């Protein structure tokens, strides 16, 4: 009996969980069935289940990496579209779990309202992005200018409509269940939609801020699995019994090294380092600029302790490579906790994967549980240590003002430069 109780505690099940199951009429769903393609099943039929899983995961991982390279080649607009599609699929997987776990089949308007709230939140976030990065295009078109001016009011009105629809849908004997699902929907929106919006913001700072963090998470996932598969002996965390300290540590060193090498290669190409901006003349995105100091080779002194080991006194590297160490360290040490969080979520509801979309890997959310946490970190990191005022955006906004407002700003700026002694020097030059 004591062992049984301890197993329940390990799975995250408490007395309140049991009450919930009885209230909602049944136990959580069973683990997802194997969805491995028949071709792979026949080709790997002679292998043990352990090695069969290794080959299935390896083949599908190579396929996903190839697809990742293809969409990078297709450019930022395609990447933004893919992020949108991934977000919708992740939302669908989590909402479907809630729909099945709580047996909410008879709830009026539940699925309709869930997707309506997803539409509202995406309208708000993508509207903000369009206003920010397509400012001149928005100002040029009258309908877009009106939508941009009242964007937040329209977004709030749309949300209030959904809120009122939810209140009107409340029915007797289902109140608690309906509020459970209302909360489930909003937490899902917070986790999925907000993070995908941050991914797009990182992308517009330069594709390198999108590719390197995502690649570090992928590298850490692969290398931690490889080190754990071949050398793993010591369990890391009870939430994920297959995770080991050997895989965790091996994945960390491999990811830091990979981040340094990838950053060195990508820092030499403007198409990766330049911010993604909208060109008014061609009505298209451009990624051409003069590389900033982050992407210009600098010479650094090697600490005396390491000079005797490597035999060098100085090393030439891009400043971005130093930042890549912070990114790869987070991807290796903190990023996996996004996966552990997802594992705890799945154990709480007795499911193996979020879905069976990718054989051997589970659902889309199973592959992106760490990516969303990484996206938030990168966005915060850029805002804290990298991003500064953008002169081109300030000029664009300045040009949309009335002439008397432009003149007022000009006189204020002129007086400020005179006080600083800058204007006289500029005139002399």
From TrEMBL:
PROSITE patterns: CDS
Basic and acidic residues bias: start-end ranges: 1-22
Entry EC number(s): 2.7.7.41
Gene Ontology biological process: CDP-diacylglycerol biosynthetic process
Enzymatic reactions: 1-octadecanoyl-2-(9Z-octadecenoyl)-sn-glycero-3-phosphate + CTP + H(+) = 1-octadecanoyl-2-(9Z-octadecenoyl)-sn-glycero-3-cytidine-5'-diphosphate + diphosphate; a 1,2-diacyl-sn-glycero-3-phosphate + CTP + H(+) = a CDP-1,2-diacyl-sn-glycerol + diphosphate; 1-octadecanoyl-2-(4Z,7Z,10Z,13Z,16Z,19Z-docosahexaenoyl)-sn-glycero-3-phosphate + CTP + H(+) = 1-octadecanoyl-2-(4Z,7Z,10Z,13Z,16Z,19Z-docosahexaenoyl)-sn-glycero-3-cytidine-5'-diphosphate + diphosphate; 1,2-di-(5Z,8Z,11Z,14Z)-eicosatetraenoyl-sn-glycero-3-phosphate + CTP + H(+) = 1,2-di-(5Z,8Z,11Z,14Z-eicosatetraenoyl)-sn-glycero-3-cytidine-5'-diphosphate + diphosphate
Pfam families, per database record: CTP_transf_1
Pathway: Phospholipid metabolism; CDP-diacylglycerol biosynthesis; CDP-diacylglycerol from sn-glycerol 3-phosphate: step 3/3; Lipid metabolism
Region (Disordered): 1-37
Membrane-topology descriptor: Multi-pass membrane protein
Ranges that cross the membrane: 109-126, 153-171, 178-200, 206-232, 244-266, 320-342
Record's subcellular location: Membrane
GO molecular function: phosphatidate cytidylyltransferase activity
Keywords per UniProt: Lipid biosynthesis, Lipid metabolism, Membrane, Nucleotidyltransferase, Phospholipid biosynthesis, Phospholipid metabolism, Transferase, Transmembrane, Transmembrane helix
Signal peptide boundaries: none
Domain of life: Eukaryota
Cellular component per GO, a single term: endoplasmic reticulum membrane
InterPro entries: PC_trans (IPR000374), PC_Trfase_euk (IPR016720)
Record-stated family: Belongs to the CDS family.
PANTHER family in alphabetical order: PHOSPHATIDATE CYTIDYLYLTRANSFERASE (PTHR13773), PHOSPHATIDATE CYTIDYLYLTRANSFERASE 2 (PTHR13773:SF4)
Name of the protein in its database record: Phosphatidate cytidylyltransferase
Annotated source species: Stercorarius parasiticus
Gene this chain is encoded by: Cds2
